[in-house]
Amino acid sequence: MEKPTSPAVEVRDLRRRYGGPKGYEAVRGISFTVDSGELFALLGTNGAGKTSTLELVEGLDRPTAGSVRVLGLDPVRHRARVRPRIGVMLQEGGFPSDLTVTETAQMWAGTLTRPRPVGEALDMVNLRHREKTVVKQLSGGERRRLDLALALLGRPEVLFLDEPTTGLDPESRRNTWRLVRALLVDGTTVVLTTHYLEEAEELADRLAIMHRGEIVTTGTVADVVASRPARISFDLPAGLDVRQLPPLSGRRPDLDAAKVTTGRTGQRVTLQTDTLQAALTDLLGWAAARDLELPNLDARSASLEEAFLAVADDRTDPTANTTTAGTAARTPEVAV
Ligand SMILES: Nc1ncnc2c1ncn2[C@@H]1O[C@H](COP(=O)(O)OP(=O)(O)OP(=O)(O)O)[C@@H](O)[C@H]1O
């Protein structure tokens, strides 16, 4: 199948204000695109504006300003054309709790033009064994899976998932990830919000981290993580002062930022660097030339969690270069 050239979802300068012109602006001029067949994850702190954004993209409300296109169409103005081609899993399902699982799915299927067989949708989310159970007797996780089954009933080209795995046990979460991956292989475009960074790492082709209504950083997981420094940690050999550390990849460690932790095994240093391999090579060369062992040596790239925490922490600019990033550190660090 030839890939369509226009994005599946296109959001430009989107704004959403609640409570009239003087009300609260929950979404403050964000833009992003989602290509066909791609999974785009919206991450962010509580109240960052993820659900508010998703609802506009789903066509549930008009933006205060800016534009949304889904499959090239305005999801509010062209609702009748867009709705049959998308699947929506809201944070709260809100279906009648006295119906059984099958009745609920059949009722929903009745509103769709070419639904999947109900049994197939229930199989996809491992809920077939609960088909005769009334919804109010389902566990929280089972209800989430029923929500997902309903979103899948219409064979959507674009699937919107608002925190799809919240409340799921680890096994159900992994099953859901497997299902989402299979949908992506089939060419479905997915936009999801999540609080699980591991979920974004597992599934997202690209992601955006929102904070206070704005997108603070966006790109692939690797892009987002690359905006944060890598770290090298080791126990300072006895008798050595942190000031004796050598220049690493051409720069002297920033000793102003150096607060060395003192623990059970002595002093521990954490260095930050933009150039992990070069800095590590220099450090190891320096240690070898002095016959020094660097106990508990650990070198690692930044994690998505670190990138997220930096965004959530107002004191830091996540796009800033690493020399200023020491202020965000949970452990004392030296920037190099
Ligand atoms: N209907 C509404 N009326 C007024 N304010 C609202 C409304 N819905 C959301 N908000 C506010 O808009 C902000 C963004 O909310 P939103 O639910 O979009 O955030 P979120 O990123 O999805 O948060 P969470 O991760 O907690 O689900 C919050 O401050 C919220 O209180």
Automatic annotation (TrEMBL):
<dbReference type="InterPro" id="IPR003593">
    <property type="entry name" value="AAA+_ATPase"/>
</dbReference>
<dbReference type="InterPro" id="IPR003439">
    <property type="entry name" value="ABC_transporter-like_ATP-bd"/>
</dbReference>
<dbReference type="Pfam" id="PF00005">
    <property type="entry name" value="ABC_tran"/>
</dbReference>
<keyword id="KW-0813">Transport</keyword>
<dbReference type="InterPro" id="IPR050763">
    <property type="entry name" value="ABC_transporter_ATP-binding"/>
</dbReference>
<protein>
    <submittedName>
        <fullName>ABC transporter ATP-binding protein</fullName>
    </submittedName>
</protein>
<comment type="similarity">
    <text>Belongs to the ABC transporter superfamily.</text>
</comment>
<feature type="domain" description="ABC transporter">
    <location>
        <begin position="9"/>
        <end position="237"/>
    </location>
</feature>
<dbReference type="GO" id="GO:0005524">
    <property type="term" value="F:ATP binding"/>
</dbReference>
<dbReference type="InterPro" id="IPR017871">
    <property type="entry name" value="ABC_transporter-like_CS"/>
</dbReference>
<feature type="region of interest" description="Disordered">
    <location>
        <begin position="315"/>
        <end position="336"/>
    </location>
</feature>
<keyword id="KW-0046">Antibiotic resistance</keyword>
<dbReference type="InterPro" id="IPR027417">
    <property type="entry name" value="P-loop_NTPase"/>
</dbReference>
<keyword id="KW-0067">ATP-binding</keyword>
<feature type="compositionally biased region" description="Low complexity">
    <location>
        <begin position="318"/>
        <end position="336"/>
    </location>
</feature>
<keyword id="KW-0547">Nucleotide-binding</keyword>
